[in-house]
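ok here's the first one, seq then struct tokens
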Amino acid sequence: MSLDERSTAILQELVRRDGYLSVKELIKKFNISRRTVYYDIEKINYWLKINHLDEVKYVRTSGFYITERTKQAILEKLKNSEAWNYAYSKKERLARLAIHLLVEEPPHFLKDLSEKTKVSRNTTIKDLKKLRAQLNSFQLTLCFTRYTGYVIKGKEEDKRRAIVYYLSLVIPHQQNWQTVLANLKRLLIHDEDESTTVLSELRNILDVLNECEKNLNIQFADDVLYHLALRFWLFGKRIVQGKKIDFDPVEKEVIQQTKEFEAAQTARSKLESIFQTSIPDDEVYYLATHLLSSKVQYSGNSLQSHDDYKNLQNIVQKMVTEFQAFTCITFPNRKAVEENLLLHLKPAYYRIKYGLQVENPMIELIKTKYKDLFLITKKVIHHFETAIGKKVSDEEAALIAIHFGGWLRKEGIQPKERKRAILICASGIGTSTILRKQLEGLFSTVDFVEIISVRDYEQRDFHDIDFAVSTVPVSKKKHPVFVVNPILTDQEKETLLKKVHALFGESASQNTKYSPEAILGIVKQYADIKDEQALMTALKEYFYKPSIPKNWTRKPGLLDLLSLEYIQIATKVESWEHAIELASKPLLQTGKITQQYVIAMINHIKNLGPYIIIAPKVALPHGKPDEGVKKPGISLLVLKEPVSFSEKKEHDVQLIFVLASVDPEIHLHALSILSECFQSSEFVQELIRCYTPEEIWSYLKKKMSEDNKKQKGD
């Protein structure tokens, strides 16, 4: 019997959990019904039974869990490809077929391909038809001949791009080295002798990459390092087969100036020794592009030494300026925000430039959970697209949104120094930054003193920390380790809070009258207790269950912050200063802002220029929450004649939205709605054409209703 993708994911989630996994969590995480949850658990239990393991246990008030013995056995099975019987999803089947056809020598006949994906001949034929359509996007063609069977034809450069993409599907990021190796065995290794050879080659390639890290004074994110090793191994196999890259002579001149090219040159002789073949010059340039395009966990180099530094720095400055304008937020440490984003944009620049597309399983979660942040990031990313001359994919845009989100959450957060913890992250700076800010927001009494890679964690001793939080399972040390997903859902936040509070005996109230110890004392007087320690743990989990913070509730929309009485229409004004004073009047009269806030907005424009103009004819003046905001709100002034914020024609404005926000995030949903509306010149003109506030209010309500219907339809 085989486990399908979802059942395997549920089982792996149970392995990760220290405590219970509730039905509610499974419904939300996998977007399935309660009935489907129990059906999947039934399949898992049958699989466990035939593998002579304990079945999944269920506690009605808490959820599912598996025994420690079963956890260890499952982890061992993951290391052994043959022991893990798994049913591939359609996406995985297509990726496995692609990798097999691209890497293995022909012939490739239907029977072999069917066995490779463990499905029927008819299903394999349908899969090949879908794969043929997918390969077209890489400029590749799937062909069939009587002698070689199925083969993929096209340029070697395009085949390599396809290998990188499909490899990220069959061996996803966010995995530890043992899991990566187990997946590779199922994918390309045929027997134990070959397994020994391949593992030796991969270990040697890892050593080569570690040397590259030292030469470049960087550290790749753990999962990126593992994927680089797999790529270099697969590229080496193709070189041995005589399938080599032809690198563009113009691009050579650019790559030759980089330190990554020097590192690839240094690695060349060792790679030649590993593969027992000579590596052509063009392949060295090609390997350098992969070093350039890979995420780093840490860089000890000044980015100013990078050839594209000034260009990228200019892009980042424009993006941050525009992001602040759209979100009405000023980053307290803008320099650090820009440096962090620069560190990400450098590899992103080369990924996009050379078409190195990878699949990231977190992308959809980022786009849905942080939808407003994602939409605003999409609005500012055009600077990057103009510089690189290519469209930035949603995958790359979502990763940039993570960087903004991480710094956004940092604003106003100062954790108390009571407990010390470290964050272990396998996925690089962006993910770890936003996770760190989530954790700092959760634990007001915990200092997350360091973000480290799995490799660093395994090699170092930590005597001065109370616990660790990790995105992947790691070896146990003296301190507790909590394994979490890279982006926490509300339910996962609550579960983690309960665990930490239970561990350290902390609660919000610290009310000893109703403490677990007091309740346990009463129970002992009237009942026999079979397992006192387990009962104490359960009581702690119950008593220290946290309430969800208010800022996790629904963010207000445009019509929640803007009301009819906050809308004004005027024919003309004397100056832009007068326009802001007039536009602010409704918020001032209702006590949402003070006069100090109006003065602050005007001073910001005098000092920084007309940065508040976010679309043609539209201005969004705002200040900081601590400059005189009492309550959140938006007011609107419509001018029949434009007012100029400078001598330039493009700074003429007729719509002035004044924003007052008490929180760095609460207004993002309203602004994302506005930014979408401003993309249409018709929306702006329609507001200007209106003659009464009632007309404007009616039009806005109609527009919001139409947009909501479209979103539900999508």
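and now the second one, same deal
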Amino acid sequence: MNDDLELELYDDGPADDASVSARPWKILVVDDNPDVHAATEYALKGVVIFGRPLETVCAHSASEAIAKVGEHDDIAVSMIDVVMEADDAGLSLVKALRDMGFSDMRVVLRTGYPGYAPELSVVTDYEIDGYHTKDELSRTRLISLLTTSIRAYDGIRAMSRSREGLELIVKSARQLFRRSNLEMFAEGVLIQIAALIGVEPNGLVCARDRKTGAMRVVAGIGRFSSLGLKPLPDVGDEMKALFANAQESEDPVFAENYLGLYVDNGDDGHLFAALETDRPVGHPELDLLRLFSSNIAVGFRNLTLIEALDRLAFRDAFLDLPNLNSFEHALGAALDGSRVGYIVKVYVCDYQNMVASFGSPVANKVMQEAYARLSHLCQGKCTIALIAEGAFGIVDPECQLSTRSLSRVLDQVYLIDGIELAPRPTSVMIPMDDLPEDRSRAISVATAALIHIRSVEDGAHVVYGKAERRAWERRNMLQDALKASVETGRGFSLMLQPKVELESGRMYGAEALLRWTLDEEAISPAEFIPIAERTGMTRALTAFVLRQVADWSQLYANADGTPLPIAVNLSMADLNVPGFAMWLCRRVDALGLDRHMLEFEVTEAIAMHGRIAIRQVELLFRRGFRISLDDFGTGYSSFGHLNALPISTVKVDRSFVRDLTGETAGRSLCSVIIAMAEKLGVECIAEGIETEEQRQALLKTGCGRGQGFLFGRPMSMDRFSQRFGLIARSGGG
């Protein structure tokens, strides 16, 4: 390098603070001569070009240069020695740099050999901006060359940034339009603006709260990520001032180290984005920001419309609570994920009955209060949705809930408009991994679980696991099979259990007991009778029993030719249906049965079943049928009810007989029941007698009749006839 007088003309003093703080232009110097590096650094010391200082990046070989550009991707100019480790090392390096994609970088070749020049095609193909000998590059010429090269680099970079910016805008528009909630959209806006102007993403986005009208932070990124949902004034005065300026301007605004952008979508939607910047933003970038802001406005408007549709699709219009669609969406995500946690179904109340009793405002407030209690319990970790009238569905992926906590919050009294309500909620928790993968089937399983629990344990809060689900599946299987058996009459049989006089042991009657066999399995009446009651099949079962009794009565009778009295159980489900008693009378007459030989057994729950059931029992009594009150003492009835009902017989439940002894007989509840029945003129029969001691104890209490295993288990009708010596009627088979 020639140290002529021109060198001294550029012996600059210290650079000002503004230029020192600006980002430097990076100059790559590639030369195998250390003196060249030292001279170049000395010549460029303190030089400022276009308001920015220079920074030299030194490499002593082509391979080292490749490594350096890997560390510095923003090199403006490369000054490369042609001859280094090889005669064409410099040219090979230029080719490598261009092949690596450094097309914006300006390249100046230097050589220490006058007269050596690359071919013209090489200069053109590799975009070489100049070729100089080292001796001819005085400081003035060096700085002039760098100024020209940097100007070219800056212009090319501006065009590249514009092209990249436009590509980014197109790409970001697609990404923004895919974002379906405000928080994601706002975060996307910050990321795209930061990429557009080339700064680190540190900023926030505020949106106007539709209810309060105040601007509130909806998303923060970088060091602003912890702001949560703070109101804009709480962020700081600097941000308030930036917002005020942005609101008054159609263009991006700047204050201190912030860029502010205000977007109004024209539909009462307002968005304010603020981003930290570490440098001034040039005109090309401002133009890109203006263009991008129009995309933000369109995306924001689309998002507003999507949120409006979401409110219609995912929220209940009357209670303004998440609805079934919201529940199904959350359930689908949970089933597609780790399948950890629970699906919870909560039945709060009989909504329609509550509306009829107290009005829809009260019923709605009960549901809203229940939702508030559940929300407080879930602490934002669950999705709670109104999935049916009076019922919520909850997706609990973090096992936030328990049966105890649900019972604690739901079973408290609801005080609504001065009215105390206790609706008796029921809930089931189904482990996620017990559910089918299909969303609709999973909901069906959860619904079935709630129905099952409400039918057997209303008001309970239970975990419904595999065992409970198997029980429900068995119930459904039995229900289908029972329906088929009722239609065909197959699988049923009638057993008779003797009733005896306790003193003599003489059999004087029998109770008809229905049995059902399915695929050689004897199904317990305790299992299939409740199914029949819930599905309306008990009338058909009663008809079967009456037909069997009629057929048998035509074949067998007592020794004196009189028909044997038979007791037939009636279901409360039938007695609560108006007209059942008349149907029963017609059925008995059609079968030719003697009304005086039939006794109908009803449970003491009839005392709590209102006037329909009681009136039908009264009708049967008036038509000549004996009425027996079964399982007395286990439920709700009292002697007051006993006196009011047309009862012929009281059957003392086996629970009062089980522990009865000769010593305890006189002071037992059993003796009290028998004494009161005698005063009311009602006959008493003790059930469940299994030992001789129990028989003797009952005789001491004054009970004269009973039934139980001591006298005979339920047996087939033919065997019963043979054992107790019934005679075949003349003309019988």
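notes on #2: Residues 139-178 form the longest helix (40 residues). The chain has four domains: 6-160, 179-313, 324-464, 484-728.
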